[in-house]
From TrEMBL:
Keywords: Membrane, Transmembrane, Transmembrane helix. PANTHER family: BINDING-PROTEIN-DEPENDENT TRANSPORT SYSTEMS INNER MEMBRANE COMPONENT. This is Uncharacterized protein. PROSITE patterns: PROKAR_LIPOPROTEIN. It comes from the Bacteria. The chain crosses the membrane at residues 20-39. It comes from Streptomyces roseochromogenus subsp. oscitans DS 12.976.
Amino acid sequence: MLRLTKWERFWQLDVPGGMIPLVWNGMMSCGGAWFFLAASESIAVLNHTCALPGIGSYAAAASEGRTRRTEGPVRPQH
């Protein structure tokens, strides 16, 4: 095929043709992982909120209008 060796075919046809799907899948995977990471840091079970320190709890506190201290988890307001 096109008088290319297997190595040349790989680098000249397969790699360029596969880059778009690889980059697309990487973007989708990182987006999903980032969403899961942020969501997993703020867990609510039976009206009790457990928030771990991290970007997810910071985002949850900011969306609720609370301030975030630098030490310890975010405490729920009653």
